[in-house]
Each structure stands twice: as structure tokens, then as C-alpha cells.
Amino acid sequence: MVQFNIWLLFLCLSIVTLATTLHANLLESEEYWEKHVVEFDEYWKGRARIAEQDNKAAYSSDPYAVSGNLTSSVSELLVGKGERRNLMGRNKGPCMATNPIDRCWRCDPNWANNRQKLADCVQGFGRNTRGGKGGPFYIVTDPSDNDMVTPKPGTLRHAVTRNGPLWIIFAHNMMIYLKQELIMSSNKTIDGRGADVHIANGAGITIQYIKNVIIHGVKIYNIQVHGGGLIRDSEDHYGFRTQSDGDGISIFGASNVWIDHVSMKNCYDGLIDAIMGSTAITISNSHFTDHNEVMLFGASDGYSGDKIMQITVAFNHFGKRLVQRMPRCRFGFIHVVNNDYTHWEMYAIGGSQNPTIISEGNRFIGPNNINAKQITKREYVTESVWKNWQWRSINDEVMNGAYFVQSGPELKNRPFSRMDMIKAKPGTYVGRLTRYAGKLACRIGTPC
Ligand SMILES: *[C@@H]1O[C@H](CO)[C@@H](O)[C@H](O)[C@H]1NC(C)=O
Ligand SMILES: *[C@@H]1O[C@H](CO)[C@@H](O)[C@H](O)[C@H]1NC(C)=O
């Protein structure tokens, strides 16, 4: 009997420690949804209705064609037309851009006078994102964030809550500690090139029921849950917000979002979460480290509105001390192309509720743990169900025992014609394609 009690005590203790160390993503709990759905006031409900239309419009009825386009431009770049300049190393040749998104702007020594050119460079599902292109520049001069309702001119919060398109840049290096979530409005670019901009140790960025946002060239880390309160979300409105989730970037019912060359680590909840019917998103050239649940695409098994979710994850480096969810998907169509997965502790790509996952030309280096070699993870489902989910691995390179469990039909209905070469061994190019992932140290007057 004594033995039994000790065993029971041990069991309870281990359940408690497990539960606290492996806390589930906040967004996946029932309480979260009950609380948040009830708390939307008329204003946010109105914005939700408009965003729903915009998100539907941003959805592509032929996702295979879009993903095929990106792959063929990668293969053309790698294989070239007899020229192989882009395969050169860091020190050889003037142009250091190694993938088609970067090639579009990085070799221009005059990039600082051509900043809005960046908006023409996005590929994949977020390809129609223009951010603040065509709008004036807004120069952030003040890193402070003291007034949530009447933000001071010159601060990032003042910039992102203005109406109309704005291309937001930074006067100098700065550390921005957000006191509450930074609620962005539509048609904005946050462009950290030329300055060392850290958004850290405070609340994160919220992209909710809006469209057309570019976030480029900043570092985002140590993001925490913050208490909420009255927060401005546009020039004409502020309102009460509940506690923020502690995501680095939270994309909520939004479309046309491009996140590029961002370095992120160690946030309380997800590094990037995209939920509630968000779509037309590209996450590229970014570097992620030190995090458990990296990316969540779709938070609720009950929310089939995420069927319109279409996301491209390209040329990123999933690096040290990452655990799982790179990404974890529900319902949508996710194209994971030419990323370098060098570390994971549990699994790399997972999901539930029949998401389509096309994994193409990635490099997966398995962890040494013999029980964590599988790249993929299907949750809450038996094989008789998931065997029909389309999860395909095409030309991925697997190393150190990593393996991708495929399911569903092979990919056939899309233009493969220009991709002959990439079929050879594209995963082997990933080191080169992602060499410059993360925030770049761009200096004015020289190529980045
Ligand atoms: C694919 O790329 C071509 C050439 O750049 C473009 O004309 C076409 O619209 C693209 N297709 C899609 C679905 O984006
Ligand atoms: C964003 O920009 C587009 C194109 O210029 C415009 O049609 C739209 O009304 C803008 N949206 C907002 C919310 O300002």
C-alpha cells in the first residue's frame, strides 16, 4: 500500500511538471475562444466582417500553380541559363543574393534610395503584398512606447496606427520595448534595413483583421504576455483589449502578409501564429532559434474557416534549440520550400484536420535522439484517416536519420515543366539558399 501511494504521488508530480513545462499554445484552449469571441465589441465585429471578404478575395483557387511558380523560379536561379554566378560564395562576385526573393533587391547598392522596390520582390502565397508601397516614408525616431491611446509622434506605435499606406523606417539603431501589443493597421511596411532594430522584452506585434503588411529586417525576441487595456488600433479608434498572447507576431483574420529577413527567438507563446482564416502569407528568409512551439497555422480543430489559409514558408533557417511546430497546421495549404531545418527536439512539421503540406527542397537534419527522427507528426487521428491527407515530400534532403512520412496523393496537377533540374537534388542547395536568413546588416551605399 505504501509503495502504491508513493507511485501515485510520483505519477501526479510528473503530470504536474509535464503540464507546466509543455504548456499548450494558449490559442488552442477552449477558454481562450470563449473569452475572446465574447469580448469582440461591435467595432471589431465590423472589422472582422470586412476582413473576411478581403481574406476570401486573397485566397487563390489554384494553390498548386502558385507553389509551382516559386519552385520554378528557384530552379531557374540555381540552374541558371548557363550562368552560375548565384552559386558563388560570400567572397566571390559582387552579388550575394542566393534566392529569387533576395535577388530581386539585395544586389542594388542604391537600395536605401529604392526601398519600396522591396515590395515587388515577394513570391509565394503572399505575392500580392505591397505593404506601404506608394505611401510616404515615416521615420521612427523615438523608441519609447508610453502612451497606448495617444502614441507620441515619432514612435513605432504612432506609425503603425496611422491611416493610409506608410513605409516605416528607423532613424537609428533602437531597442523597442512594447508596453502592450502593437496593433497594426492596413497598408504598412516596417522596414528595419540600415538600423539595428530590436523589438524585445515586451509585448508582440498583432496583425488583426487587416491586410497588406510587410515586416522586414527586425529582430523580435523575449516577447511576453501583457495585461491589455485601452490600446489604439487606428487613427480613428482605440478600445479595450484583453491580455495579449505573448506571440512574436500574431496574424489574426488577416491577408497579404509578408515576413522577410526577421530574426526571432524565445517568445512566450508562438513565434508566428496565423489563425482565424488568415491567408495569402509568405514567411521567408527568416531565422528562428530558442523556442518550443515555433509556428501555429490554425488554432482550432473546430474552425474550418481556416480552409482558405494559404501560406508559403521559404528560405528560412530553423536553428538551434527549437522543439516543434515548424509549422503545425490545420485545414489550409502550406508550401514549405527550401528551408534549412538544422535542429528540432520533437518533430519539424505537423498538423491535424487534413491540411495540405507540400514540402519541397528542404534540408532536414535529424536530432540525435532516436525517438525524434520523424520529421512529421499527425495529431489526434488514426492512420486510416490521415493516409488521405496530402503531405508530400519532394526533393527534400534528409540527414542523420530524419524521415518524412508521406501521405495522400502525389502532386500532379501543376506546372512542373521548368523544374527538371531542381528535381535532381535541390535539398543540397539549401545551405546556400538560406545562408543569409535572419536580419541582414545592410549598410547604406553598398549591396546588402
Ligand atoms: C507565375 O509567374 C508568371 C511569370 O512571372 C506570372 O505571369 C503568373 O501570373 C504567375 N502565376 C501565379 C499563379 O502567380
Ligand atoms: C489600402 O490600400 C489599398 C490600395 O491603395 C486601398 O484600396 C485600401 O483602401 C487601403 N486600405 C486601408 C484600410 O487603408
Automatic annotation (TrEMBL):
Transmembrane residue ranges: none
Q: Where in the cell is it found?
A: Secreted, Cell wall
Chief subcellular location: secreted
Pathway of this protein? Glycan metabolism; pectin degradation; 2-dehydro-3-deoxy-D-gluconate from pectin: step 2/5
GO terms (BP aspect): pectin catabolic process
Under catalytic activity, the entry for this protein gives:
Eliminative cleavage of (1->4)-alpha-D-galacturonan to give oligosaccharides with 4-deoxy-alpha-D-galact-4-enuronosyl groups at their non-reducing ends
Q: Could you tell me the EC number(s) of this protein?
A: 4.2.2.2
Q: Which SMART domains match?
A: Amb_all (SM00656)
Q: Which UniProt keywords apply?
A: Calcium, Cell wall, Glycoprotein, Lyase, Metal-binding, Secreted, Signal
In the UniProt record, the signal sequence range is 1-19
Is-annotated flag, keyword Acyltransferase? no
Cofactor: binding details? Binds 1 Ca(2+) ion. Required for its activity.
Q: Which domain of life is it from?
A: Eukaryota
Q: Which cofactor does it need?
A: Ca(2+)
Instruction: Tell me one Pfam family matched here.
Output: Pec_lyase_N
Give this protein's Gene Ontology molecular function annotations: metal ion binding; pectate lyase activity
Keyword Calcium in record:
yes
Family classification:
Belongs to the polysaccharide lyase 1 family.
What's the protein called, per UniProt? Pectate lyase
Naturally occurring in which organism (per UniProt)? Lupinus albus (White lupine)
